[in-house]
Structures are given as structure tokens and as C-alpha cells.
Amino acid sequence: MEPNKWTIKSYAKINWVLEILNIRKDCYHNISSVFDLIELFDIITIELLDDNKWSINISSNVKKLERENIIYRIFEELNFVDTKGKYRVNVELEKNIPLGGGLGGGSSNAASIIYFLYQRGIIDISCAFRMCKSLGSDVLPIFISYLYKNSYIFCFERQNICVPYAKPYNSVYNFFLVFSPFGVETKQAYKEYDKIIKNKDLFIGYKTYRFFYFVKNGMIKEYFYYLIHNDFEKIIYDFYKDIRFIKEMIYDFCSKENVRVFLCGSGSTLAIITKDGKCDVNMLKKVIEDKGLVVREVNVWF
Known about the structure:
CATH architecture of the largest domain: 2-Layer Sandwich
CATH topology of the largest domain: Ribosomal Protein S5, domain 2
Oligomer: single chain
């Protein structure tokens, strides 16, 4: 790697728990969630060239991201804060995380670059936090996941309050992602959920606290299968019937007692967790792929 060029990984996120507690006065939502990173990532190559101001050029295998990209906002803001040096930046973005899948790909790209700038000493931690909070609700928890590796991140309010908690084990859990071609817009998902929301005057949701309890008491491995929860499932399967069809197809092949299918976040990607030896995983993958869908095995650390 050239001295002024670096390659970094930008990891996808998953919500093991996602509870929508209430609608705020500013029309956003207070949520309670358990946030984690998984072994699926974009690859970002960053070149820094000395200059008298910050500027950026982006090239990508997904051409629309060369025009519309959250990364541009980072370097616009850098011209108005104290930084160690100023640079003309060339970014090459190899996109592997699907758009609209609920895996936080754009937010992860932003968090990864902010973390890179912090690691290089170009910005300080307070600047990094301010930038994360200004860019979107998923950026801060992903950034904190990089700071506190091998931790669950418990997120509250607009995910502007994030609490890391070290994972009790150092082992790997395998599961599968099904990439649906039917993208889900986060704004649309929240709009639909607003039609059924029952506001709860809580800071931490019951399902989030339950997950924390089992982590804290060293029982997460035994009960993990039963602790996953996503409030968006109350509306996504009705509003996006193609996604519901994929879920039902999986359950037709393998009973609900032996496999768990759930949404990864607010998007369309489905995750599959099977009980060991209770389902023919290779055959299940073939059934899904025969429908023209992409299946990816990924790892997560406990």
C-alpha cells in the first residue's frame, strides 16, 4: 500500500433487538435497540493528498453512489472544523452491502471514514462524535462499535445514546442472510409503523432489557435464538408481500421450531438462524437460490 493510501473495511450492522417506543415532538422516533456488526463489509480505499482545503472524489462499482453519497457531507463539514492538515481525498468504494437492505451500508461507510480520520489523528474524538450525530441515526453506533470491538451496542432515543457492553464469549456464530431484491425505504417503514404505534413512556424497551439480562448473566448463547425481536416485522410483511413470501417459503421448508427468520433492521434483508442439526442447511440454501435470491453465510462474534 502506498504511504498516502489506505484500505479499510466498512462492516454491515444488524439489530438483534429493535423496539420503536414512541414518536417524539420533532416527529422522529425514540427507539431501544441492540446493535452489532457482522462479517459482511464494503471495501474503501482512501488516498490523502496535501491541499489547502478539504475536497473529495468518489469512484464506486455502484455508479449512483458517485453522485449521491453521505460521504460527501463528511468532507464538506471538515472545512469548518479544526483538523490536522487539509487534503484532497480520493475514495474508491467497493460496494458489497446491498442498498435498502436494512444493513446500514451508507452509515457504515460514513462511520468507517470518520473512524479512519480519528485513528490518523486528523480529527479528535469530540469532532468525531459531533459528525456521527449529524449524519444519521446509525452512524454513531457503528462508530462506537469500532471503538469498542467485540461489544454489543445498546442504543436509545434516536440512537444518540449508545452504551457498549462487552460480549461474554469469544466464539463465532454462523447464520445466513437472504438479500431480497425488494428494497425498503426507512422513511416509508416508519410511516407505516406510525399507523399502529402505541406510544410507550419508556427509555429502555422490555425486549432490549431482556437481551441485556441474558448477556449480563452469561446465558446469551443458550437463549439467543429466542431473544431476537424487531418491531418492524409487525408491518413490513403486510406492506411488502414479496418479503413475506420469502419468509413463508423458508418456514414451509423448515418448521418454526427449527429455524428463525427475521428482519435485520428497517430494510428488506432477512436473516436465518437454524438450530444445530435440526434443518438441512444446504438444501434450504438451494431452495432459496432456486427462486433467484442471493444467500450469504456470515459470522458474528458472541
